[in-house]
Amino acid sequence: MPDNIIKKHKLKILVSILVVFCFGLIRAFEDQLFYDPFLAYFKGNFQNLPFPEIDYFKLFLGLFLRYILNTVLSLLLIYTLFQDIEILKFSTFMYGFFLVLLFVMFFVIIEYFPDANWLLFYIRRFIIQPIFILLFIPAFYYQKLNLKK
């Protein structure tokens, strides 16, 4: 029985593994791919340090590119797993909404709240890591299960 399931979903499994591998590549080469002085800043004892000097334009481009790469991979994974255009549309809308919200919060904190380094740490984490996929997949799976009942 499990062998038949694997054969039936071979493409889903392969695409899912490829997407997870790509997430890993983005993380592994983040220093080379993206301008982000906060990578080193948050690795150290940052609690009492001022924010590092930044080039706003380069930082925005780096964060934006990383968010878009993670979003495209996440949407590919969501579509692969659920094959539902409505879920894909909703997910796309949510990623767009969070893009605007998180970027506004990120740059407001940098500019107006220099002591809010922990808040900046967590907001930045949502921008640079594919955390939303960890929330969306179980939620959509649960929704699909409830619709079948």
Notable characteristics:
149 residues, mainly alpha, 81% helix, single chain, 0% strand
Question: Can you tell me about this structure?
Answer:
This protein is an all-alpha fold and 149 residues long. The chain has one domain. It is 81% helix and 0% strand. It is built from eight helices and no strands. It is elongated and about 55 Å long. The mean pLDDT is 93.
Number of domains: 1
Q: What is Rg?
A: 18 Å
- pLDDT averaged over residues: 93
Helix content: over 70%
Count of distinct strands: 0
Give helix and strand order, one letter per element, not per position. Answer: HHHHHHHH
The amount of beta strand, in percent, is under 5%
Largest sheet: none
Brief rundown of the structure:
By secondary structure, the chain is mainly α. Helices cover 81% and strands 0% of the residues. The two termini are 24 Å apart.
